[in-house]
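To the structural biology subgroup,

Please find below the input and predicted structure for RNA polymerase sigma factor, which we are adding to the shared reference set this quarter. The sequence is reproduced verbatim from the submission form. If anyone notices a discrepancy with their own records, reply to this email rather than editing the shared folder directly, so we keep one authoritative version.
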Amino acid sequence: MTREDELIHRIEQGDPDAVEELVKIYYPEILRYCLWHAPDRSLAEDAAQETFFKAVRYFNHYVHKGKFKAFLYQIAANTCVDMRRKRWLSDFSYEELALDFACAETGFEEIHSNLFLKQVVCRLPDDLREIVILRFGQDLTLKEIANIVGLPLRTVQSRLNSALKRLRKEFEKGGFYES
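Predicted structure (tokenized):
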């Protein structure tokens, strides 16, 4: 029995400490995921907290088959979509995000590259963007991604390949890719 299995069993028995422990295990991952979908850290934290509130609220609908992480990611994805519809700006420009730092500033190039990457990833169609974020932003396996998005493994592989081709073209246009 895994630690997750044990905690799920304890939650089913009504142990509130098990809920707290499960949140501690998954909160950093879910927050990192929400950071990809939110325009700022504060809104990402709100989305992550809302994800766990919903997970607890709807826990009685969850049937544990060893895929609790996928359950959480599905809730997080829906929460981010809902919050974006309600509050977040649907799009932001790289120019608006890039502050006027001197190029000699320590870490400027890394920040500049990360902002460009986020902007390029955000331009991908929703289905491709989600797979890229789960694979590279969350470091999940293709099998885990297939469980989260509810698609066959081959479809996930195909969409990831398509997304990577699009990203490569964008990086080539932006001068960040060297062949």
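Summary notes: Residues 89-112 have pLDDT under 50 and may be disordered. The domain at 108-179 is CATH 1.10.10.10 (Arc Repressor Mutant, subunit A).

Regards,
Lab coordination
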